[in-house]
Write a structure and sequence with these properties.
Distance between the termini: 53 Å
Radius of gyration: 18 Å
Number of helices: 5
Structural class: mainly alpha
Strand order of the largest sheet: 1-2
Largest sheet: 2 strands, antiparallel
Strand content: 5-15%
Number of strands: 2
Number of domains: 1
């Protein structure tokens, strides 16, 4: 009986953690274990990764832009955004639509990304 109560408590605490992360701005990786501890949970890296991956996807659904611009707007680190880009690209859920000048860094030939399938090109190939 106590095991089942523990499972229910962890499920409830995990749901509360997910809700907290969803409504919070980006939480630094060093702070994530501390936040989990506040909810009486072990470090649940996946809760944070899933939320930030979802934010990246949703941002690119409505805005075709670069990873540097997504970082500027969401504060999600570019290293994670590059991992999320590869994740969605492999699933066929993200495309590079064109290259151009980055609105943030002003660098030339930077990839502009989208997750909006209505904008995808039929000629796009993952390399």
């Amino acid at each position: 009986m106590s095991f089942e109560k523990g499972q229910v408590k962890n499920t409830t605490n995990k749901a509360r953690l997910i809700a907290f992360v969803e409504q919070s701005e980006y939480i630094a990786k060093s702070e994530q274990p501390i936040i989990c501890k506040r909810f009486n949970l072990p470090y649940l890296k996946g809760v944070f990764a899933n939320e930030y991956r979802k934010r990246f996807y949703n941002y690119l659904y409505y805005t075709t832009t670069t990873t540097a611009d997504v970082f500027k707007q969401t504060k999600i680190p570019e290293k994670f955004l590059c991992q999320a880009k590869a994740y969605y690209e492999k699933k066929g859920l993200l495309q590079v639509l064109f290259s151009g000048r980055c609105p943030v860094t002003k660098s030339k030939n930077v990839n502009f990304l989208s997750t909006n399938k209505k904008l995808f090109s039929d000629n796009y190939n993952i390399k």
